[in-house]
Amino acid sequence: MKNVIVIFSFCFAWLGLVSCNDDCYNPNLEAEFKNKVCTTDCPGVIGCDGKQYCNECEANKLGVAVDN
User: Fold this and answer.
1) How wide is the angle at C-alpha 37 spanned by C-alphas 50 and 59, nearest 5°?
2) Which CATH class is domain 24-68?
3) Which mean pLDDT values do the consecutive 10-residue runs of the chain (68 residues) have?
4) Sequence ranges of the domains in the chain
5) Where are any strands of DSSP class E within the chain?
6) Rounded Cα gap, residues 13 and 1, in angstroms
7) I need a labelling partner for 16 at 20 to 30 A (CA). Which of 5, 6, 23, 28 fits?
8) CA-to-CA distance for 1 and 7, rounded, in angstroms?
9) How far is the C-alpha of 17 from the C-alpha of 19, rounded, in Å?
């Protein structure tokens, strides 16, 4: 019975990690915008993660897409 609890705990923890990493972060987007220079305008945009960023370019540099 102890082994079942350990296995269940491991699976539950693993699923928790998967769900934590299942956000809108896009490493390809981050790589694409890594060396781009963003403007300093700051109208404020909301990323797919629900957080506010100064502009779309700044969000993209962090690997976060913005819905237009």
Assistant:
1) 5
2) alpha beta
3) 44 38 84 95 94 96 91
4) 24-68
5) 45-46, 52-53
6) 18
7) 28
8) 10
9) 5
Cα atoms in the Cβ-side hemisphere of radius 13 Å centred on 49: 17
Residue 67: the pLDDT is 82
Note whether 47 and 53 are within 8 A (CB).
yes
Tokens, residue 23: 């956000």
For residue 50, what are its two tokens?
A: 């629900």
The tokens 């963003």 sit on which residue?
38
Pairwise CA distance, residues 65 & 59, whole Å = 7
Q: Please tell me the pTM assigned to this model.
A: 0.63
Instruction: State residue 23's pLDDT score.
Output: 77
What span, in angstroms and rounded, lies between the C-alpha atoms of 32 and 53? 18
CA-nearest of 66, 13, 17, 55 to 26 is 66
For residue 47, the tally of other CB atoms under 10 A from its CB is: 21
